[in-house]
Amino acid sequence: MRFVIVTGMSGAGKSTALKMMEDMGYFCVDNLPVPLVEKFAELAFSQAQENKRFALGMDVRSVIEQGDMARLLETLSANGYSYEMLYMEASDQTLIKRYKETRRNHPLSRGGRIDTGIQAERKIMSILKQKADYIMDTSQLLTRDLRAELDKIFVQQQEYKNLFITVLSFGFKYGIPSDSDLVFDVRFLPNPYYVDSLKQKTGNDPEVQEYVMASGTAGQFMTKLTDLVDFLIPNYIAEGKNQLVIAIGCTGGRHRSVTLANRLCEYMSKKKEYGIKIEHRDIAR
User: Environment class of residue 35 by beta-carbon count within 10 Å: exposed (0-12), middle (13-18) or buried (19+)?
Assistant: First the structure.
């Protein structure tokens, strides 16, 4: 028996997460009127439902309507209704972009600016974020990544850490990714672009990888980079960070940066403290 409350910022993917959990066998209810939440929990925890899994969506309107959300959660616990809370998060920039793309109004903007509504919502929702068991930042998550993370938590029942890391290769000639947290420049390494047999290949090809890593400097760089990452990640986790973008750039983003990003992701994938994915932004340019 699992009872999951899915909540978080409007536009961060709550409804999408509920649909995915429904596909995973959860009985899902979204935006249930607050006075009925206890009744829903009572039904979910009845003996007839003991082998089932439930997910309840609650957004900022539910929090405002309830007035004292903490009291509701305490009541659920006092009645023996154990629950888990998934909090969906995203950066302000990402949320604004999503609202503009869908042309929907933010529930707290009242016809005004979207960013004003987002800031008001963050303040109201902070009580739920503090109580959340899982905080999932969807700013960098593709749909398939979100599904994989939800499956890991709520189907495979693997231990989940709130930090999700994106290792991103890019080309400086196309600009530094605006959402990068850490940026590393590997343009000091030998460039396969000037080798005729490697020019049309990428850092995903073994020949290019061998060429780049044949330089002793590349190996030294990887040693220092992994040492830095091993130092930083536990501190980011302790600080409560839930999204980290490590960007590695070369001139065009097709050879050196791709090779080093692949090596870093391969190294970090062995860790169990966080989720990780890799992206090659400019590899096809």
Answer: exposed
